[in-house]
User: Fold this.
Amino acid sequence: MNTKFDIQKAPKAFRTISEVARELNLQPYIIRFWESQFKQIKPMRRKGGRRYYRPRDIDFLKGLKALLHEENVTIKKVKETIIKRGKEFIVNWPDEIPVEPSVIGKQRVEIKFSHARKKTLYIKSSISKQQRLKINSLIEALNRLRKQMLANTSI
Assistant:
């Protein structure tokens, strides 16, 4: 979570709706609307009904904004994605790219480096089956080499 707020608070401090709206460059009414559409957004409420958002809620809202505003995915599709892949998928949105399983010609590749989180990529493939087998065998060989390197040195 790399949030930079104007107001100096601890990184794990709860934020008001106006602080979150300013951080995400949204109007507060949009965040309130998303609350009505996505049950996963549950800000804590104090006396008077004032909302306080947890850092995890803010990460979820960032993923929603990326999907709804930048990728132009519909609310219905985002809800289906949450059902299929879970809230964590939306929270980690920049690291993962959604793909419909019915789309032919896409291949899923997972890469994990010792110094970074696992990245999931979906690659459009317009290659032959034989070329795909060669690529898969190359990926397997690279994975074996990585395991050998990690076994020989503690990185």
Remarks:
- Strands lie at 15-16, 44-45, 51-53, 106-111, 119-124.
- The first helix runs from residue 17 to 24.
